[in-house]
Amino acid sequence: DIKHQHQKSRGSSGINAEYGEITNEGDCCPTCLANWVEAVNPTPDTVNGQPVELTCRVNGVEVKKGAVKWFKLEPLKDITKWKMYDVSDDGLTLTIPKMEARMENGYKCVVTKNGKTAEGTFEVALPDEEIDLVEAVEDKVAFVEGGKVVLRCKKLEKKIKIQWTCNGNEMVHGEGNVKIRTKNGNSELEFKPAKLSDKGTCTCSAEGQGTTDSVDIQVGGVENEVTITPKVTELTCKQGDASRCVIEFDVTSTIGDPGANDVKFWKLKDGELDEKSSSSKEGNTFSRVFGQWKKPSRSGQYVVVVTVKGKTYQSEPVTLTVLPKD
Q1: Between the chain's N and C termini, which has fewer beta carbons within 10 Å?
Q2: 255 alpha-carbon distance from chain centroid
Q3: pTM over 0.70
Q4: Which CA distances in Å does 148 have to 131, 135, 139, 163, 242?
Q5: What's the rounded mean pLDDT across residues 27-38?
């Protein structure tokens, strides 16, 4: 009858093969004994070289030490009595005395009571090793307004992608006064001419295989004490023409009076100082005259570099075009 069937469904329970979970046949109490053993710290924190404790808790019943066994899962082995592990007096804590890579595995405690078993499982692994991908050659740099400043980020791994951001903005090579290049194993970010708005924090971010890293560089700057102003930004002359062909800059300084020896003209090549020449001074104006050297090969961009009290200041470029003679 119905009453007999209900009593039968409550009266049987079983255990799966070798230390499996307790099962209870019938519908009235399908999981009555399912969680009387639990792992207190199923994914313990680990440090290489330090001990690790795995602790099981038994709920609602008392057990003796002999009722608890410990297993390593891959491959499945009873490690309760292995000397490389320590088991507490109550049997419920297994200690790995020295954590290292070979100890990474799954573990479980298996508790037997009145012919029934339950278990708590653990996953033991060392944390992923943090790999430094980049480091700052200098963590603080500074500039004088109108000059040049270079930030260098050393690449510690070969196969990494570098990205620069400054004050939250992505830096792009060739935009404004920004240049980005790789040189001698470093990623370099250059501001030229440097502006006061370039002050702040720049971040060199690296992305490798499955890992990322970044380093911050503080950028300081001061207002320019020397002002260099070109008379014209573009100048066109003609070979063989007797008319005047001269590049001129006005230089004003609040920290000293530079002479002709303190001001040098430079022709640029690929944006870098390449050919140096002397200047002539009249008042605050410094000039470079192209006489017999007025040839098309002299075409290009020219700047002046001013040195005052040990500091150097560089002008914006002037573009000279020398047309060939007829």
Answers
A1: N
A2: 41
A3: no
A4: 32, 22, 17, 20, 37
A5: 56
Q: Are 50 and 99 in contact (CB under 8 A)?
A: yes
Residues in the chain: 326
Contact 233, 184 (CB under 8 A): no
DSSP annotation of 75 reads T
At residue 19 the predicted structure's pLDDT band, cuts being 50, 70 and 90, is: very low
Strand runs labelled E in 223-290: 226-230, 234-238, 246-253, 263-269, 272-277, 280-282, 285-289
Residue with tokens 């009555």: 32
> Could you tell me if 245 and 282 are in contact, meaning their C-beta atoms sit under 8 angstroms apart?
no
**Residue 10 pLDDT exceeds 80:** no
CB burial class (10 A; 0-12, 13-18, 19+) of residue 106?
middle
Q: To 10 degrees, the CA torsion angle through 172, 177, 180, 183?
A: 180
Per the CB < 8 A criterion, the answer to whether 187 and 155 are in contact is yes
For 227-279, the pLDDT digits (tens) are 899 999 999 999 988 888 999 999 998 888 899 999 999 999 998 999 999 99
What is the identity of the amino acid at 257?
A: D
Q: What is the pLDDT of residue 318?
A: 97
